[in-house]
UniProtKB/TrEMBL annotation:
TM spans (from-to): 58-82
NCBIfam families: anchor_AmaP
Organism lineage string: Bacteria, Bacillati, Actinomycetota, Actinomycetes, Micromonosporales
Keyword terms of this UniProt record: Membrane, Transmembrane, Transmembrane helix
Protein name: Alkaline shock response membrane anchor protein AmaP
Length: 197
């Protein structure tokens, strides 16, 4: 997820800020930052007087700021939860003077899924192109019957569908992750996972 890195940085900064504020509050409340701080009000009289004198616009501004912050937080949360590194297409290696050729990820995914689903023992396949158009990666999830030979099937997928995808994209070194799930297993979703080169 592209949002992961930004989210980690943002959450780290927020965490450090809140930790510093919490430590400062504890030190101030314990009298470590001055003997008079534990008994002093959080807001001094100047701030209270300013808010009272400008109450016609001050409190609506505070409320509007809170609403904007809540909306931004909700938008950020949705972006983190539902965004992916999926890409819309892959740029094929062609002659630069002839222009750029892009193959849509939907076409690639459909072809990979259709080929894998034709293999014996496969119930469903779902592939996704991730990363960037210049440096794509392939993630393939396959659900198989309980009687399927996982080793033979993973080898067939690697030699067949993944090799064909690499050839179609002109990327023999395309990284691919293959996740094979056995259907109707009460213990959990993933039976075995293979990380392919």
């Amino acid at each position: 997820m592209h949002a992961d890195r930004a989210s980690r940085v943002l959450l780290g900064l927020i965490g450090l800020t809140l930790t510093a504020a919490g430590v400062a509050s504890l030190l101030a409340g314990g009298g470590r930052l001055g003997a008079d701080l534990p008994d002093s009000p959080v807001l001094d009289s100047t701030v209270i007087r300013f808010a009272a004198e400008n109450s016609t616009w001050w409190w609506p501004a505070v409320a509007a700021t809170g609403v904007v912050m809540a909306l931004l937080g909700g938008w950020w949360l949705l972006a983190v939860l539902f965004s992916t590194d999926r890409i819309h297409g892959v740029r094929l290696a062609t002659d630069p003077t002839a222009g750029a050729t892009t193959l849509t990820s939907g076409a690639v995914n459909h072809a990979i899924d259709a080929e894998i689903e034709a293999y014996r023992g496969v119930r469903a396949a779902n592939s996704r192109l991730l990363g960037t158009p210049e440096e794509p990666e392939l993630a393939v999830n396959v659900t198989v019957d309980q009687s399927a030979d996982i080793g033979a099937l993973s080898q067939r997928i690697e030699i067949g569908a993944l090799t064909h995808a690499r050839q179609a994209l002109g990327r023999p070194d395309l990284p691919a992750a293959l996740d094979i799930t056995v259907s109707r297993r009460p213990a959990g979703r993933v039976d075995r996972a293979y990380q392919l080169p």
